[in-house]
Amino acid sequence: MAVSSAPLWLLVLLAIAQWESSVGASSHSMKYFSTSISDPSQGEQPHFVTLGYVDDQVFVHYDSHSQKMQPRVSWMEKVGKDNPQYWDRETQRERGVEEGFRVDLETLRHRYNQSEGLHTWQQMLGCELRGDGRKGGFWQYGYEGRTFITFDKETLTWVAPVPQAQITQRKWDALSPQNQYFKSYLEEICIEWLEKYLSYGNETLQRTETPKVTVSSRTEVEDGMEMHICRVDGFYPREIDASWRRDGEVWLEETFHGSVAPNADGTYHYWLSIRIDPKERSRYRCHVEHDGLQEPLDLELKEPTNSKSNLGLIIGCVVAALVLVCVIAGIVVFFKKRQDDYKAAPTSDKGSSSSDQGSNQKV
Q1: What is the structure's pLDDT at 329?
Q2: What is the rounded distance in angstroms from the CA atom of residue 342 to the CA atom of residue 350?
Q3: If residue 33 lies in a helix (H) or strand (E), which one and from where to where?
Q4: pLDDT tens for each residue of 249-281
Q5: φ and ψ at 61, to 5 degrees?
Q6: How far is CA 331 from CA 48, 291, 307, 344, in A?
Q7: Of 9, 68, 210, 249, whose CB neighbour count within 10 A is largest?
């Protein structure tokens, strides 16, 4: 679907998919994705949406219809009880960002010499605490679904990949104190709030669910080769190491795999396949490592029983497709229905001042 005709909920999903940074085993992350859209024909849909994620779970939501930052998980209710001003502060900040984005969209439309119509402006920021103790962070903006400008926290400068962003780059690079704050936010404040949220949502975010691993097989009619599919289902957290091993070594030849995808219950599933000569079947194993397993799991391959084994593969694919359709449908319904200085202790997970975060940082 072209960006110019995509609904807002899809643009948000595209932003998440395009800008999501990878994390390793036992890692945790907090990310915010804000999308503003200008479209006279938009109708009932909200023109501004912010989604907050801890790991892969939406935990807060704001849109231009409700104009309120609201919890999306039960454990966030504890935050409001412990910090009565929390939701008011978050709401005021997002209102400032919403207004700033509206101005930015108009500025960028003129800078690109575009007519009125559908245009999008996105902000993506977040931090991650990796399993080995290392910390990471990113702060980026996108226009019309493409990278517009990116913050380099090591040099305290902005990177402009397109000519239209160079004006913004010079303007923001001149704001040295603010850039120092952004670095501090990504490396300190964001991590501090991530750890707080992990504590509040401990039972959900830091649980482990053991993967269920099965292997199905079929014989290829054309050449007699065998196709073996290893399915890993029901695991949490998301990070998993699954591979085909030949004589104990990772084997990549004639292998394929899907992406780690969510289940309706918050767990994940994954699959990988391999095409082999039946004579060498005993040399291969499906190898799985996960926090929910006490030790790595190796499943041997079995001889395909008969051609009816194709039925299991077909059923599995149909079920996976239905799950994906349900997830997407749920998201569509969701959006249609809702359509201090950094050295001081932070009172907001996105900083002490809403004006510092978007409403006053004009492009």
Answers
A1: 52
A2: 11
A3: strand 28-38
A4: 999 999 999 999 989 888 999 999 999 999 999
A5: -150, 140
A6: 16, 29, 38, 38
A7: 9
